[in-house]
Amino acid sequence: MEAERGLPSYYNVMGVEIDASIQDIKRAYRKLAMQWHLDKWMSTPSLLSEAKRKFQQIQEAYSVLSDQRKRTHYDAGLFDLDDEDDQGLSDFMVEMISLMAQTREEEKVCSLEELQKMLCDMAQEFHSPSWFCGPVQARGSSKRRKRRKEHK
């Protein structure tokens, strides 16, 4: 999201890796906040606006990366700083990301029939048309083969 706006990522602003712990983020924040705090730059008016900009970036990055919910959204590319009232979406996204992580850990391989059943179960919850969950016929199904033999 920041790349789209031409801004550095919050991880780059904080100088930490994507898998940084909360302690690493807090440590980086303290160091950067002391380095760019406005009180330190009051005696150098020419650099004061730069310090203000950097300090605001640090504050914003820390507010997102130190909050697990916001960080999860940010990592998924769904965080919008202007939209703080997204509790429903937040819960949904946390659940989806958790399920995706579990699925990756399980590394279960599903058959076509299992995938179709899961899709049908989900579609029925949304009251999809019945034709949506009809049986899937493999390419070159037996009905087609019978017709071809009859025509020959």
Describe the structure.
The protein folds into 2 domains: 10-106, Helix Hairpins (Orthogonal Bundle); 112-151, no CATH class. Helices cover 64% and strands 0% of the residues. The protein starts with 9 loop residues before the first helix and ends with a helix. It has 152 residues and is mainly α. The mean pLDDT is 75.
List keywords for this structure.
mainly alpha, 2 domains, Helix Hairpins, 152 residues
Q: Brief description of this entry?
A:
The chain has 152 residues and is mainly α. It contains 8 helices and no strands.
CATH topology of the largest domain, anyone? Answer: Helix Hairpins
Give the overall silhouette. Answer: elongated
What structural class do helix, strand and pairing data support? mainly alpha
Evaluate the radius of gyration. Answer: 26 Å
Q: Total strand count, please? A: 0
Taken in chain order, the helices and strands follow as HHHHHHHH
Would you spell out the secondary-structure blueprint of this structure?
Elements: H1 10-14, H2 22-36, H3 38-41, H4 45-65, H5 68-75, H6 87-106, H7 112-125, H8 142-151
